[in-house]
Design brief:
The chain is α+β, with helices and mostly antiparallel strands. Helix content is 19%, strand content 32%. Strand 9 and strand 10 form a beta hairpin.
Amino acid sequence: MMNTEWISKYAPYIYFDNNEPFFPVRVGVTVLEEAGPSPSTRRTFAFDEPGLKYIIEYAIYWDYDIQHLYELEHVWIYVGQNDEVIDCDASFHGRHFKGLLRDRSNLVDGTHVKLYSQPGKHAFMPQADMFYLLPELMLATDEYAGRRGLLITGPFDGVYSTDDETDRKVELYLQSFRFKPAMEFWEYRIDSALYTTWEQLHAEVPVRIKERLAEIDEFLGGKEK
């Protein structure tokens, strides 16, 4: 049985924009105890950090990104031999950055790394001002809402498919959520009820996508007549 109290002890504190419309719905957790690949994304760990005991991988799932149906971002917490946080990585649009600042000033309550979520897009940074480096920061959540339709990424290659009509419907739906980021943020703590294994989350995602597409059809039904 999953120890949600222990998982919650190291979970990141996420800071969302005040106008954010979408929040995590599931979190797949894996504890990595030796060198090897991540089960949920294209990344391999060497386990060569001094004093490293294990890495907790949080695969954080949203039903929607402002530009496409379904979002999966990651946080990796590096835990040392004395159960201290020694490092953190956080995903950013298929890549990753260090999530723990050099002075450790964004480590809250001893074990929780404070991370900011890009408005609407959910990629992570340890400081909110870093988002201003993105040329499409404001356009992504507004004019560009929905433009990528139903996204298919690595863990789900061949699990489900999309087409032009599906992508069009997703875009129309997400256009109804377009917004301007406030660039003011509030603290969100992951509810322990959201935790599951990566294997269970991987099985759930296609079901959730099917359910969301049915809801989109219902939403658009009266709008396209």
